[in-house]
Write a structure and sequence with these properties.
globular; 42% helix; nucleotide-binding; alpha/beta; 20 helices; Nucleotidyltransferase, domain 5; carbohydrate metabolism; EC 2.7.1.16; binds ribulose-5-phosphate; binds adenosine-5'-diphosphate
Length: 556
């Protein structure tokens, strides 16, 4: 094969990275990372009400800087031979756009309006709207939630749209349509951002917008109008079709070809979510569970549609034909907070240090804290009487989405120290993962192996060993530091015609695996008992304690 290159772009929660990859070998020729400037300053967000918005300029600046930066580390020869670019992003991260597909925050009058920005996956301001969608769906003749686990989530497309249209009259009058982040960036690169003609991702449409062939696309206008007349007519300004990530969205626009000094023949692939392209990058096989473990987790499972397509799997984030690999049913689950829980613990410890001892001491502590706590926690025995925590600090994504849930801790005594609390938080994230695995098994989908990718999988042997012990399954960690971007590069190679199938691209470009965590039978046996405590405690908090609190606040 001629020396041709592809670029994978991976937009994570905090930063975006570009990977220039040799399409024949998967060898990385150059990479660059860009942290979102406005996001880093906390702009447009209010964690106390779960509002998380990202400015389109953060994405556009990242697009240019990372591709230029990654190419700058390669030769002119490499640059000349780039044939494709594909993009993955977080999701559901939609934005209101005008007729041209311009996010409203890029128009001067909306430049500082968070409702005109991308509504990040972890924004939970639409809890009430998600509940309304569920209530209506339960009584509607066609169950539009059947392929998204039977429960619609506030992290998703329609709940976010409905909420925004309700609370902001200025957005309501200007929003022509709505576009997911992964579709918009890919469209920007092609120069056609027209919301009615740009090719929408199957992954985003199927998992988050209730798009399905069986419904002839999105939920009916009748359903949407019943939900709220504000949604009337919007379906016609969205899309009928969706496309898998082996398909080309179009060619790079002359403007972007010039800006990036790339050939005007570069193909831009149809986008998808980070975890789905990450699973491609990790060479997911049928019945492998690929866990992307970072701020949150996104767990991806694939299986031949003809073997599992008849199942309706309760409480997951959807089952969509072709959302990961064409021809396979892609199933998604996940936890709304994983590494974010450790980051929260780090913040509550370092905050008083910053205020009492200054920035330098806080920064020093912050850098060493999690690795130190992990090292100490690894030395502790695992006992049935240990503290048990719930991992619902950002609500529960799966099984059974419920973003009104909150974290909790049980079993504290005067001997409970920082390390023991940290250990319990790590265990809670592993228990949350186990609940997902159990749900797939209960619903009749086998899991033959577990693969892990993402920041936590690479950085924390303690977390990974705990996870293997709790799941009582070996976990393989992909070698690449940038598996999502590598997966995007593989998709670009297929979309550009270098390979006919994803499988061929995976065989040629895989990074392989560099660690396997084996469960320790003695520790695992204790964890099965602690997991039972986690389930019991979770049941009490969800069905008794929090339920009473919610009822009390409604009657107050
Ligand atoms: N040494 C560590 N041990 C455990 N978790 C860590 C460690 N270092 C960072 N993290 C967690 O990793 C998460 C970020 O994961 P990463 O995959 O890099 O980013 P993203 O989720 O944005 O793609 C943060 O929530 C952070 O708390
Ligand atoms: O749900 C998702 C994909 O379907 C989110 O994009 C994902 O969970 C966020 O990713 P990260 O934790 O890596 O920032």
């Amino acid at each position: 094969m001629k020396d041709v290159y592809v670029i994978g772009l991976d937009y994570g929660t905090d930063s975006v990275r570009a990977l220039v990859v040799h399409a024949g070998t998967g060898e990385v020729a150059g990479t660059a990372v860009h942290e979102y400037k406005r996001w880093k300053q906390g702009a447009y967000c209010d964690p106390t009400i779960s509002q998380f918005r990202q400015h389109p300029l953060d994405y556009i600046e990242g697009l240019e800087e990372t591709i230029k930066g990654a190419l700058a580390k390669t030769s002119e020869e490499v640059r000349k031979n780039v044939v494709g670019i594909s993009v993955d992003t977080t999701g559901s991260t939609p934005v209101a756009v005008d007729e041209n597909g311009t996010p409203l925050a890029l128009l001067p009058e909306f430049a500082e309006n968070p409702n005109g920005m991308f509504i990040l996956w972890k924004d939970h301001t639409a809890n009430a709207e998600a509940e309304e969608i569920n209530q209506l769906a339960y009584h509607w003749a066609t169950d539009f939630t059947k392929y998204v686990g039977g429960i619609y989530s506030s992290e998703w497309f329609w709940a976010k749209i409905l909420r925004t249209l309700r609370v902001d009259a200025s957005i309501r009058s200007k929003a022509y349509s709505w576009v997911e982040h992964c579709d918009w960036i890919s469209a920007v690169l092609t120069g056609n951002t027209n919301p009615r003609t740009l090719k929408r991702s199957r992954c985003a449409a199927g998992h988050k917008a209730m798009w399905n062939d069986e419904f002839e696309g999105l939920p009916s206008d009748e359903f949407l109008v019943k939900l709220d007349p504000l949604l009337g007519g919007l379906r016609d300004r969205l899309f009928d079709e969706s496309y898998t990530s082996d398909v080309a969205m179009g060619k790079i626009s002359p403007e972007w070809a010039e800006k990036l000094r790339l050939s005007s023949d570069v193909i831009i692939g149809v986008g998808a979510f980070d975890a789905h392209m990450g699973a491609v990058g990790a060479c997911i096989e049928p019945y492998s569970l690929c866990k992307v473990i970072g701020t949150s987790t996104c767990d991806i499972l694939t299986a031949p549609s003809e073997e599992v397509g008849h199942l309706l799997i309760r409480g997951i984030c959807g089952q969509v034909d072709g959302s990961v690999v064409p021809g396979m049913l892609g199933m998604e689950a996940g936890q709304s907070a994983f590494g974010d829980i450790y980051a929260w613990f780090q913040r509550i410890i370092t905050k008083p240090v910053r205020e009492l001892l200054g920035e330098e001491a806080a920064e020093k502590l912050s850098q060493q804290l999690i690795p130190y706590l992990a090292e100490q926690a690894a030395k502790l025995p695992v006992k049935e009487t240990d503290v048990v925590s719930l991992d619902w600090l950002n609500g529960r994504r799966t099984p059974d989405a419920n973003h009104t849930l909150k974290g909790a801790m049980a079993g504290l005594n005067l001997g409970t120290d920082t390390v023991r609390i940290f250990k319990s938080l790590v265990e809670s994230t592993a228990f949350g993962s186990k609940a997902i695995v159990e749900r797939f098994l209960q619903e009749g989908v086998a899991i033959k192996q577990v693969i892990a990718i993402g920041g936590v999988a690479k950085k924390s042997p303690f977390v990974m060993q705990t996870l293997a012990d709790v799941l009582n399954m070996p976990i393989k960690v992909a070698k690449s530091e940038q598996t999502c971007a590598l997966g995007a590069a593989m998709c670009a190679a297929v979309a550009a015609g270098v390979y006919a199938t994803m499988e061929e691209a995976q065989n040629a470009m895989s990074s392989g695996f560099d660690a396997v965590y084996e469960p320790r039978p003695d520790v695992s046996a204790v964890y099965q008992k602690l997991y039972a405590n986690y389930l019991q405690f979770g049941h009490f908090i969800e069905h008794s304690y929090l339920k009473k609190l919610t009822e009390a606040s409604l009657t107050a």
